[in-house]
Design goal:
The protein has helices at about 70-75, 80-85, 125-135, 145-155, 180-200, 205-210, 235-240, 260-270; strands spanning about 5, 35-40, 60-65, 90-95, 100, 105, 140-145, 165-170, 220-225, 250. The protein has about 270 residues and is α/β, with parallel strands linked by helices. Helix 7 (about 235-240) links the parallel strand 9 and strand 10 (about 250). Helix 4 (about 145-155) crosses helix 5 (about 180-200). The radius of gyration is 19 Å and the shape is globular.
Length: about 270
């Protein structure tokens, strides 16, 4: 079962969500490109000169907005986390391939009044799979709402020949019924990897095996659940979390939103360690 997220009591500057209704991805005039990349500025010393320390290679995080949002709006909303991880992660905010009208985008289309967890088919999701394939390689996925469900499916089915991100932060998801088998595939792959790890540990001397820590899951995941989420109810998010091995759980008192308070920020930083 998912574990409640235990975040360290570290100091972190207060981060406030943008004003407005409880909606995590404000719409904006959409940029002509389909992805928005966020890169940190070079380190600068007190004298203004560029720091001489050798930079480490950054990992890449792909961010997937919710239905009706877009890459630029999600990038602005997530800016505090982008800034907090700028030394170790490069972010790319990807635009859904389907229009919902105006500046809004989606990862698949649904009939009027039908929810993803009710749908027997997710029309257009194959276009989103192809888009993720073109974005590979990347090391992590952050998704909200429909983007979170796409991230969960991608972790299970694999990307570009079976690759999987090492980190997934899944916020406000529901169970994607039409592709539930894809999500469940992850657990089967995780169990096979754990068995292989156990066989290798059995092949080394017992004294050495005792001090070698077990392998991490293939996908280290954090699942963020709003207790007042009426769009994708908590039970739906929990079902997604239970399909992941050693899933961490962060519950917040809000609704269908990406929380950006101190506790949430600490949890995100822990997941992206």
């Amino acid at each position: 079962r998912p574990r409640r997220c235990q975040v360290p009591s570290m100091e972190y500057p207060r981060v406030c969500a943008p004003p407005g209704p409880s909606f995590a991805v404000p719409t904006t005039r959409r940029a002509p490109t389909r992805a928005v990349k966020s890169r940190a500025m070079p380190s600068v010393s007190a004298s203004g000169a560029e720091a001489s320390t050798t930079p480490t290679k950054k990992r890449k995080m792909l961010a997937l907005h919710g239905k009706g949002g877009n890459a630029a709006g999600f990038a602005r909303y997530m800016a505090p986390l982008v800034e907090a991880t700028a030394e170790t992660w490069e972010w790319e905010f990807v635009e859904g391939p389907h229009s919902t009208g105006g500046d809004g985008r989606a990862w698949w289309n649904l009939p009027p009044g039908v929810r993803t967890f009710e749908a027997s088919e997710l029309d257009g999701i194959q276009d989103s799979f192809k888009l993720l394939d073109t974005c590979y390689p990347f090391n992590g996925l952050v998704g909200f709402s429909q983007g979170a469900m796409l991230a969960a499916v991608a972790c299970g089915r694999g990307i570009k020949g079976g690759h999987r991100p090492s980190v997934a932060i899944i916020v406000g998801a529901a169970w994607p019924t039409a592709h539930g088998d894809d999500v469940r595939k992850l657990m089967r792959v995780e169990l096979a990897a754990a068995e292989a790890d156990g066989e290798m540990r059995n092949a080394v001397p017992e004294a050495l095996a005792e001090v070698v820590p077990p392998s991490d899951p293939l996908v280290r995941s954090l699942h963020v659940v709003g207790k007042q989420d009426t769009t994708n109810p908590p039970a739906q998010a929990m079902k997604v979390a239970e399909a992941f091995s050693c899933a961490e759980l962060l519950e917040h008192p809000g609704g269908h939103v990406v929380p950006m308070d101190e506790k949430a920020m600490r949890a995100y930083l822990k997941a992206m360690r």
